[in-house]
Amino acid sequence: MSVFSVVQEGAPIEVFALTKAYQDDLYEKKVNLGVGAYRTEKGTPWVLPVVKQAEKMLAADDTLNKEYLPVLGLEKFSAAATKMLLGSDSQALLENRAFGVQSLSGTGSLRVAAEFLARQLGYTTYFVSIPTWENHNLVFKNAGFVEGRTYRYWNETKRGLDLEGMLDDLRSAPDKSVVILHACAHNPTGCDPTQEQWKLIADVVEEKKLFPVLDCAYQGFASGDLDKDAWSVRYFASRGFEFFCCQSFAKNFGLYNERVGNITCVVKNPNVVTNVKSQLTLIVRGMYSNPPSHGARIVAHVLSDPQLFEEWKGCIKTMAMRVIEMRKGLREALEKLGTPGSWEHITSQIGMFSYTGLNEQQSLHMVNNFHVYMLRSGRISMCGLTPGNVDYVAKAIYETLTN
Ligand code: LMR
C-alpha cells in the first residue's frame, strides 16, 4: 500500500480547468471568457511588440549572464517598478521609506508579503472582499493566517459597490487584521471605489489599525493611464500608511508565464528598511531562494528606456481601449436583442472583467449549452470578446435569460 494512498483528490482550480475544457472543446463557435488574459481582435494571445524588441536587445547583450540574481531580485527592476507605482515625486521614495522586492508575479508577491506579515508582525486575520480573486484565500491561509474574513463589496441589486457594508464589516475587524484591497480594476467585479469612497475606506483602515495589502495586478489596464490607475496606492502613501502593494506585470506587459512581480513596501521610518529587507530575504530564501531574471530584465529595460516606455504605454492603451470597445459592443448587442435586465454595468465596470449578474446556474448553462466558457460566479473576461464573437455571446446570454 502506497504512503500516498491517504491523499484525497484536491478541488480543481476553476479558471484553469475552464481553459482546459475550452481547449478540448471541438465546437467551432466556442468562446473562452474564463481566464483573465488579453486576446487580440482575432482572439489570439498577444506578445507585445515592445517586449519582443526588448528581448532582442537583451539577447544581443553579451554582458548579461545566467548567474543567480540577488535574493530580493534585480535592483534595476524593483526600483523602476516601485517608481512606476508610487510616482517619481513620491515623498516615500524621496525619504527612502519605500523599496521594492522582485517576486513571482502577483501571486508570489502576495505570498511573500503574507508570510512576512504572519511571521514577523504576528498578523493572524485577513479580510477579503466578497467576491474576490479566489486565490487570495489560498495564499493567505498557506502563509499561516489563522482566520480569513470577508467584507461586503458587491451589491447585487444595484450592481455596484456596497460601500456602507464594506465599511461596517471593516469596522468589526479584530486587532492584528490585514485588509486586502484591489488597487484598481477589481477582480472579479470590475467595480472600483471612487476617490471619495477610497478616502472613507482609508479612514476606517486608519481607525482600526488595519494593515493594507494592495493587490495591483492591472495598472494601466483599467483606464489606459498608469498614473490614474495607481491613484489609490499613491493616496495611501500620501496619508502616511505603512503597507505592501503587490504588483503583477502579467497583464500590463503580457508576461503571464514569466512570473514578473514586485512587492512595494512603504514604511514610516527609513531606519527599519534594512531589517525588514533582511527578513524578507530569509523568507524568499526559504521559499525559492531567488527569482528568475528574464521577465524582470524585459520590464526593467522597457521602464528605463524613454522610447520603449512610450511604446509600452501605447500597447497598454491598445489593450485597454479594445476592452472598452468590447464593453460597448456587448452592451449594445444585449440591448438590441431586448435581453431582460439593465446592462449599463457592462460599460461602467472597468478592467479585464465584468461581473455580468448571471447566477451560477445561468453561467453553467452558458458553458454547457453555448460553449461560452465563463466562471460560475458570472464573471467574464472582456478580453475574450472579439468583434467576431460578441453577437454570438450576446445571443447566448439572451437565450439563457429568456428560456
Ligand atoms: C484570472 O483571474 O483569471 C487570472 O488572474 C488568472 C488567475 O491566476 O486566476
Automatic annotation (TrEMBL):
InterPro entries: Aminotransferase_I/II_large (IPR004839), Asp_trans (IPR000796), NHTrfase_class1_PyrdxlP-BS (IPR004838), PyrdxlP-dep_Trfase (IPR015424), PyrdxlP-dep_Trfase_major (IPR015421), PyrdxlP-dep_Trfase_small (IPR015422). It is found in: Cytoplasm. The keyword Calcium does not apply. It is an enzyme of class 2 (transferase). The keyword Transferase applies. It holds the Pfam family Aminotran_1_2. Its EC number is 2.6.1.1. Gene3D superfamilies: Aspartate Aminotransferase, domain 1 (3.90.1150.10), Type I PLP-dependent aspartate aminotransferase-like (Major domain) (3.40.640.10). Its cofactor is pyridoxal 5'-phosphate. It catalyses: (2S)-2-aminobutanoate + 2-oxoglutarate = 2-oxobutanoate + L-glutamate; L-cysteine + 2-oxoglutarate = 2-oxo-3-sulfanylpropanoate + L-glutamate; 3-sulfino-L-alanine + 2-oxoglutarate = 3-sulfinopyruvate + L-glutamate; L-aspartate + 2-oxoglutarate = oxaloacetate + L-glutamate. GO terms for biological process: aspartate biosynthetic process. Residues 29-397 form the Aminotransferase class I/classII large domain. Its main location: cytoplasm. GO terms for molecular function: L-aspartate:2-oxoglutarate aminotransferase activity; L-cysteine transaminase activity; pyridoxal phosphate binding. GO terms for cellular component: cytosol. Keywords: Aminotransferase, Cytoplasm, Pyridoxal phosphate, Transferase. In eukaryotes there are cytoplasmic, mitochondrial and chloroplastic isozymes. PANTHER family: ASPARTATE AMINOTRANSFERASE (PTHR11879), GLUTAMATE OXALOACETATE TRANSAMINASE 1, ISOFORM B (PTHR11879:SF55). This is Aspartate aminotransferase. It comes from Popillia japonica. The lineage of its organism: Eukaryota, Metazoa, Ecdysozoa, Arthropoda, Hexapoda.
